[in-house]
Amino acid sequence: MKEIYEITAPIYHPSPPDKWSYSSLSLFKKCMKRWWLTNSKYSNSQEGKYPAPSSIAIFHGNIIHTLLDKFNTHVKQVIDNSSDYTKVLQGFSIRKTIHTELQRLLNKENRTNPRTSIDYITSGIDLNYCINQFKTIIASVDFQKPSTQSTPSVSTKPNNNRTGGKRWIEINDPPICGKLDLVSRQDIIEYKTGKEEEGHIQQILFYAYLWWKKHSTLPDSLIIIYTKTKIIKEIPLPTEAELNQYEKELRENITIYTSKIIHKEISVSPDRTTCEHCSVKQLCNEYWNSDQTDILRENKGIEFDYFQEATWTDAEIQSLPPEWTPGKPLIGKAMTKNLELTIQIDNQKCPTDTTRKPTSARILGGLLEIKNGEWFLSSKTNTEVFWKYSK
Length: 391
Ligand code: SF4
Fold this sequence. Notes:
Layout: H1 22-30, H2 32-39, H3 56-78, H4 85-90, H5 94-112, H6 118-124, H7 127-140, E1 167-171, E2 176-180, E3 182-184, E4 187-192, H8 198-215, E5 221-226, E6 231-235, H9 240-262, H10 272-276, H11 285-289, E7 311-317, E8 330-335, E9 340-345, E10 360-371, E11 374-378, E12 384-388
Parallel strand pairs: 4-5, 9-11
Antiparallel strand pairs: 1-2, 3-4, 5-6, 7-10, 8-9, 10-11, 10-12
This protein binds iron/sulfur cluster.
Iron/sulfur cluster binds next to helix 2, helix 10 and helix 11.
């Protein structure tokens, strides 16, 4: 068992960030406790933040972003006004770039993120999917247009005079920062590899505000490209009055958030939508005790008689099999708050320290079934098991 799978209290609490990014602001707004637990320091986590496990979708997104970044660099290096764009495309080695990036990401995760299952990621990565998404974007976006042009820089025709790439912007007052996916002349373009969400519009408006503060002018356009559905959305530019109102609310929020962090006023309100994909729920007692999140746990109100199919669930094992000892795979009768069941946990997810026995376990993504007329909960490749010890 890796060290991170022992549940420990933070050793240091976080300070307010020097600069707020869009993701830190929205995380704080959604659930302050999640921000707090993520940014605290733990004796069994080497990284600055508590790690979140990477998913295949995150890997796909990172690979596609890197492809676009490298493609931009390639275009800038080779193209001139007389160049044949087809040849520029042919000169870019998509597969080689993907393989190099995949290896880099896997090495990094292996080195820094004990929660990522490398086997699970490598078995699910779809390189052809990444290539198709990449081709969709470069066929749709005119990376370069004259900066005076007022129509969006989205076309079906490639332009042979392209520039762009990720751009980091930060300002001190208010203290905010952002990494923009692509800036082409005066256009801000965001790629999204998942489904459409309201938060994407808020994100690009945050970047528009950041740009406005940095350059004292607005970008020419704000564009979101959904690579899966090939939908290209142009978001209307905010007016100056809207930007001023935005700034007022942003400053107020940063003041409130900073004060809450300094005074450790941690609010928490678990609910199904907020908690379902929370990466620190194993550390959050409210999640395990709230009626609002019952549906995500083993006591999701399933009637034994009507339970037909296996289901993925979280579960808190409050009473471990008395005959089981650490150093061995766990199998035996156990109790959650509401169920008596048999649990089976792989050896590699069980504690190896034979000198002490955990008192309970929090299981994320176990498989719940009925076997031989009894509830049966087992760990699978992607299941995480966190262990609690008495102090
Ligand atoms: S489990 Fe829910 S309430 Fe707890 S930190 Fe995560 S999002 Fe917040």
